[in-house]
């Protein structure tokens, strides 16, 4: 019998959900994985700043080119309320965090380690939820959906990195 409650912290849950949402919105699997990891990383950064765990980011000076222009900002993908810088690589678009291109294979490994044998069940359930929405509606509702099913953890610093229950029955109940 499949487990209905999975003990896990929020970061891998958000990573997987954001990747599935990105795929539903038309990104290939590898790009979607990097976007999912970036969404989770940006959320963690914001929460860490709010809790005082991380300091506020400092503005980086613009590098001046020979033409006197400032450093060009990379294109961004908007996903789940986050603007994610992306680059085009020979393998396709990849999300970038702190000037580092995210490797989709490392995201797959991360998800496999965090979810273990439950990964395929969670992935299938999340995919069914994403498919229950038209892409434009999913794009606007994806984060609110995540807030409904994410693991419940203690408030404040006590919740930082804490595990909670991901309820697959709750996830299934959100499918229209």
3D architecture notes:
The chain is of the alpha+beta class and about 180 residues long. The protein has one domain (about 5-55, about 70-175). Helices cover about 50% and strands about 15% of the residues. Strands 2-3-4-5 form a four-stranded antiparallel beta sheet. Strands 1-6 form a two-stranded antiparallel ribbon. α1 (about 10-25) crosses α4 (about 120-130). The longest helix is centred in the first third of the chain and has 23 residues, at about 30-50.
Summarize the model shown.
This protein is 48% helix and 16% strand. With 176 residues, it is of the alpha+beta class.
List its salient traits.
single chain; 176 residues; alpha+beta; 4-stranded antiparallel sheet; two-stranded antiparallel sheet; 6 strands; 48% helix
């Amino acid at each position: 019998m499949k487990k209905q409650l999975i003990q896990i912290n929020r970061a891998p849950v958000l990573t997987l959900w954001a990747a599935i949402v990105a795929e539903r919105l038309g990104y290939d699997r590898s790009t979607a994985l990097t976007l999912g990891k970036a969404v989770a990383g940006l959320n963690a950064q914001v929460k860490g700043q709010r809790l005082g765990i991380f300091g506020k980011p400092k503005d980086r000076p613009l590098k001046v080119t020979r033409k006197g222009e400032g450093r060009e900002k990379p294109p961004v993908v908007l996903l789940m309320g986050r603007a994610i810088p992306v680059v085009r690589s020979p393998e396709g678009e990849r999300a970038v965090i702190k000037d580092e291109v995210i490797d989709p294979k490392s995201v797959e490994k991360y998800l496999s380690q965090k979810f273990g044998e439950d990964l395929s069940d969670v992935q299938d359930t999340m995919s069914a939820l994403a498919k229950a929405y038209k892409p434009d509606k999913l794009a606007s509702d994806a984060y609110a959906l995540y807030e409904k099913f994410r693991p419940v953890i203690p408030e404040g610093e006590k919740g930082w990195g804490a595990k909670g229950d991901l309820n697959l029955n709750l996830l299934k109940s959100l499918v229209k």
